[in-house]
Protein 1
Amino acid sequence: MTGLADCNNFFVSCERTLDPSLEGKAVVVLSNNDGCVVARSNEEKRLGIKMGQPAFEIRELVKNREVIALSGNHSLYRDISVRVHDIFRRYAPATIDYSVDEAFLDMDGIPASALPEIGAAIWDSCWRELHIPVTLGFAKTKTLAKIVTEVCKKRAVHAGVLTDENLKWKLLDMTEIRDLWGIGRRLAKKMYQGGVYSIGDFARLDRGHVRKWLGVNGERSWLELHDVNCITLAHIDRRLQDSISETRTFPHDVEDYDYIRARIAIYASYCSQRLRQMGGVCSRATVFLRSNRFHTENGYHAPEMTFRLDAPTDDAVVLVKTCVGLLDRIFSRGIGYKRAGVILSEISDARAVQPSLFNPCPTMREVPEKLMRVIDSLNSGSRSHGTPAMRLASQLTVHHKGYDDGFCISFGSVQP
Ligand SMILES: [Mg+2]
């Protein structure tokens, strides 16, 4: 059996761990620059607010206090994400982290009769230890587990186990084809036109017909509905994030250029590492600084600059250089900065990169790719324990007492 563990309204649930008064209220989390809605609570969903809806459209609701809108706190979400996945790992022999808030659980060798209890235990741990609600679905394949999880969520059930064949067909018949995992809007339209409306309709088609009509991906989904496990992680089209950001509020106002430069280098390098982990490359890099809103002798400063890269990249060296270059253009001496950050955006799949006209030699990517792989493998695992094993020289900074936000190191601690 395979399980899917999926956190409910993840970003909103994370915010509620910090501020319990948000419980039961309609809450949305906004994207990086507060532009649009990226997460909603159930209460919001009932109000009809959509994912990706521009923030100005809900301004009235926010003003009337019907809705609470929060800026995303992505370092909090990442931190909780790591801990949620740690809990999942405790209960399953093997897990695949699918996204920030979802993991597949390989329950091979565990009898189906034990699964309701295991599901309840996972729910209980996540709620008791982290105050994050999850939903769990168990079935013979990943695709079916996904369907079970969705049904459980709609019915506000913590966990469901699907083994019964009759029940399976009932669920498939009542679920719309566009909700089938891996079916995009385009393919759903094609299916509607072919008279396929529910997942049950699809599963009743002839296998050979499905392969001819929808290709191997369609056939894989069809097989999964017939209890044949055939989607491995390599087949999963992981949804790439739209952007990756790393920002920090400094404990003090900082005027020191060298210190901020090292921070920007660290943030850019860390973003690039996450970019490589998800198999993406980015085309835009943004650096921003914020002065302290409450120390206004010099006025409030919020300079920001974006650079469009010649060719999409995930190379830490290129991204750090680009971001430090941007910092040089926006940094002003004599201003105390309270916050700094890096945003990488326009992210696309690393396997589908269009080489630049001005840098057309594909082998020029090979050396940095190998280098990044080595650095990542040296650093893998060390990140959670604090400082990475290997970093770029531009990330080094003289230790400033009181500025330590977990990244700071002193030259004395650098090993030859
Ligand atoms: Mg979720």
Protein 2
Amino acid sequence: MDFKLSEEQEMIRSNVREFTLKYLEPVAKEIDQNSRYPVEVFDKLAELDMMGISYPTEYGGGGTEFLTSMIVTEELARSCASTGFLHGYSFGLIGHPILTFGNEEQKKKWMPGLAAGKLVGAFSLTEPGAGTDVSAATSTAVKNGNEYILNGTKTFITNAIIADVFVVFAYNDRSAGVKGMSCFLVPKGSPGLIVGKHFEKMGIRASLTSEVVFKDCAVPADCMLGKEGDGFKIAMSALDVGRIGIAAMSTGIAQACLDESISYSKERVQFNKPIAKQQAIQWFIADMAVDIDAARYFYMNAAWIKDQGKSFSLAASKAKLFCSECAVRHASNAVQIQGGYGYMKGSKVERLYRDAKITEIGEGTSEAQRMIIAGSALR
Ligand SMILES: Cc1cc2nc3c(=O)[nH]c(=O)nc-3n(C[C@H](O)[C@H](O)[C@H](O)COP(=O)(O)OP(=O)(O)OC[C@H]3O[C@@H](n4cnc5c(N)ncnc54)[C@H](O)[C@@H]3O)c2cc1C
């Protein structure tokens, strides 16, 4: 067993840290306040080949292990949770399904642009009445000659407003249950694809979230990803990978909580000494340090299993559950350590506290992860 990262992975981690301190940390507060997608940051990440780092070289990627891309996600989230989230989202929910289920033509059409950071995707699964229960979706895809006609409403869709391609799930045959769900790669600008209302959010505010409506949206049959009826399988596979991304993002958030807690507690003086000298504060810090190590092992283990080509679904659920709860717990503790100052708008821990919460909800709630884990344990 070898827990060591490769020299290349260590170098990438330190390069990304350098990058975030220079380009991301200075804008993180502003993009949160203004709910602004930081296009200039993503352009620079693309120049550094970070948007396709683990995609195969034949499609313009960097050809590294998936684990390497997750290290990048963690480091980005340490400075800005939104940016880390969007990085992991792109690998898990967009690149992975196209690479795994796409035909050669689809991979050649979309992957080089995604790998170069020139194209952005929006995973379009959730509906107003179908969140955790994906099977309750009501969107339909009716075959009409050489086309499918999509109808339905998707909600809480990340990137919809800026997306070049939508990974859309709809029933072609409701009577077949989830085996009647299919997946489509719908290009932006398709007639009948309407990006609806924009949501104001508690956290990860630099990621943009909108409703997407399909109104008699005709897409050529060759936009189908996989075969008719593969949609549910594709969605679950993408979410498995996305969950490792959320786990890596959560670890970055928790690390930022520790960074902030150490520097603040050494500076803040009460009762004539820095609060870091108080055992109560030291215990917070010790618990954070231990949990962050465990979180990092959890997400790296899941990514490593994926890199070995083995089944990683359960490991991804465990990693997501542990890491997200770690981020939420320690974001709360980090605010506690900073007292009233931490509670004020504009403090970094206040942002971390708001940003952390999504990790327990998006890409399968904590309850959904517990259902998966218990289901496996009790089998
Ligand atoms: C910021 C943000 C970005 C998002 N981006 C995307 C995106 O890009 N694409 C996309 O498709 N979706 C996206 N989502 C949707 C997200 O995946 C869903 O919000 C999530 O899956 C939960 O669904 P829901 O919100 O409908 O909650 P519900 O499913 O209604 O759940 C409500 C509560 O009930 C619990 N619950 C539900 N069923 C059970 C059960 N059987 N047992 C125990 N508890 C249960 C849940 O855990 C939760 O606590 C996004 C959401 C947010 C907030």
